[in-house]
Each structure stands twice: as C-alpha cells, then as structure tokens.
Amino acid sequence: MPNASVRHLTVDAESADQRLDNFLLRELKGAPKTLIYRIIRSGEVRVNKARARADTRLQAGDDVRLPPVRLPERVVDLVPAAVPKRAFPVIYEDEWLLAIDKPAGVAVHGGSGVSCGVIEQLRHARPTAALLELVHRLDRETSGVLLVAKRRSALKRLQDQFRERSTGKTYLALVRGQWPATRQVIDVPLHKYLLPSGERRVRVTDVCDPLGQRSISLVQVLGAVHPPAGWPADAPGMTLLAVTIKTGRTHQIRVHLAHVGHPIAGDDKYGDFAWNRLLAHWGLKRMFLHAWRLKIRHPMTGQELQLHAPLPPELAGWGDVRRFF
After folding, report:
1. What is the C-alpha radius of gyration for the chain, rounded to an integer number of angstroms?
2. Cα 215 to chain center, whole Å?
3. Predicted confidence band at 78 (pLDDT cuts at 50, 70, 90)?
4. Residue 28 contacts residue 40 (beta carbons within 8 Å)
C-alpha cells in the first residue's frame, strides 16, 4: 500500500458547486463509498478548516483537507466488476443532459448501506462518458424523472434552476381518505433530523424553529381511486393527487400529506402501517409516489423542456388508477 498522509486540495472552477461526497469520490479514486462517508461523518474531512456534511456545496478556492487514507494498489481496476451495468429508460438525452425514468427501490447514489446506485450504474454502463453527475435526488422508494448532467456547465445551470425554484416538479401520490377540495396549498415548515441509527427523518415544525425550512406543496385532486374487487367495505377510501412542490425538501410530500391526515399508500416511514399491510395484501407492494412531470429550461438554449415519466405498471394497474391516464 502507498504511504498515506494529510492532503490539502484547492477546489477549482470546474468543481465549483459540486457536493463534497462527489468531489471526494472523484479525488479518492477507488475508495469505498463507506470510507468516504465515514471520514466525512467523523469530521476528518474539513472544508476551510471546518467540519462539513456530505451534501455541502463546494466553491472555487475552498480548501479541502483529506485525512491519511490508505488504498490498496490497483483497487480502481477491481471496482467496476462489482458495479452492475444498467440501462435505465431514457426520457430525453442530448450532449448536455440525460433524463431517465428511475425505478422504485433503487437509490440514486451509493452511500451508507448502499453499495451502488443509479449514478454508479450509469457510469459503468457508459464508460466513455466524460461526466455524469446527478442534478437532483429522488428517494429510493420513489420512481420517475431523474436528471443527470453530462457537462459541468449544464450541472451548475440546472442546479441553479432548482435552487431558484424555477423548475416545475409534479408527483403523483395515492393517499388515504377523501381529500378536501378546499385544501390546495400546504405551507408548513419541516425540520430534518437523524434517528439514533443515523437514518434521516423529517418532521413538521413551526416558524419559530431555527432549523425549520419553509416548505410549500400545491395539491390538485385527480379523483377517487376504486380498489380491486373484494376490497373490504370498511377500509378507507383513496384519492389520487398531483402534487407540485415549490421547495425540494427531503421527504417533503410524504411528511406534508401525512401531517394533514392523508398518508401516502405504502409509505413505510410516515404512513399508516396497518393500511399499508392491507394494501400489500391486495397487490400494492411499494409506495405510491411517482415523479411524474418535470419542467426545466434547457441549460444551453434556454428552451422549456417538459419531461414526463408514465406511471409504472405496478402503480397504473392497481385498482382503477389507469382510468386517469
């Protein structure tokens, strides 16, 4: 193994606005992702002499301190064999960006407890691509439109749109109960925290919470969903919603809908667990949340793009959902 020592790296202009974890994955080629996230969590990685999180956005000129890290020689040659190649359905692609239809059950990137995600599989399937970087995230349990940048300039411009809230992101969600037609806006701040296990969770808070983030969801009722034949007569009714988020907070839709008494079908974190078991018995084996439509401006031309991912069969075929499409 080569000798290991503390290293200091200066972030260049091409790496500006990149997440710290992605920056380290590139600089420490071949390092296991578990190692990358461990040294970040432990505070051994410093940005401008301060602790930083995995999702910290770097700026040009930042000083990144790397602790001594020992890597086996030729580890880079061993990594690709462990990463599966996967061709995800392509919604849109040009020389600047790629939009895919992410299936449920796949994390967008590797990390704690996840050996590899969508982005690692894409990179392995496209070894000649100069750059493939996630523009935004989807929960592992959520399917639908996912954007990947193919150039650094496209990444920055697209992420600027997300930060400026100029994108249009609409999800389909099946919820418990009859949604009241008068409830069209949920404007409730959210607070992100960690369980003792280290798993992320989000809860509703109030405007006095210094760690609370304003979160806005716009709700449109598509209609009542009738369950499969034989569904218990005393079981809750269901409503299909189109939810457009004006802010992109972690688990925002899931927490907002549960907070107002209409949890998402199959949500194993914030949902109605007894109802989820009933749904699973009648064929709904996953969370009914799908990133349906995404409106962006093309990072080079400025032209508006309307990206659309149809409901996957396991959702469209449940009950009479298909009649809405």
Report:
1. 21
2. 16
3. very low
4. no
Please give the backbone phi and psi of residue 33, each rounded to the nearest 5 degrees, phi first: -60, -35
What does the pLDDT read at residue 79? 45
How many of the other CB atoms lie within 10 Å of CB of 25? Answer: 19
Beta carbons of 64 and 47 less than 8 angstroms apart: yes
Domains of the chain from N-terminus onward: 7-66 (3.10.290.10), 75-159 (3.30.2350.10), 165-324 (3.30.2350.10)
C-alpha to C-alpha distances, 133 to 28, 162, 224, 296, nearest whole angstrom: 16, 15, 39, 17
> Rounded CA gap, 323 and 325, in Å?
5
What pLDDT, on the 0 to 100 scale, is given for residue 3?
46
- Average confidence (pLDDT) over 278-298: 97
Tell the residue number behind the tokens 């031309």, with chain if given. 301
- Distance, in Å, from the CA atom of 147 to the CA atom of 133, rounded to the nearest integer, reads 9
Check pLDDT > 90 for residue 220: yes
pLDDT for res 127: 87
Measured distance CA(12)–CA(261) in Å, rounded: 48
Strand partners, 47: 50, 64
Contact 79, 115 (CB under 8 A): no
56 closest CA partner among 111, 19, 93, 102? 19
| Token representation of residue 221 | 């009722």
Report the predicted TM-score, pTM, of the whole model to 2 decimal places: 0.78
Active site residues: 139
pLDDT above 80 (res 84): no
Q: How far apart are CA 122 and CA 84, in angstroms?
A: 9
CA atoms within 13 A on the CB side of 314: 18
- So what's the pLDDT on residue 113? 58
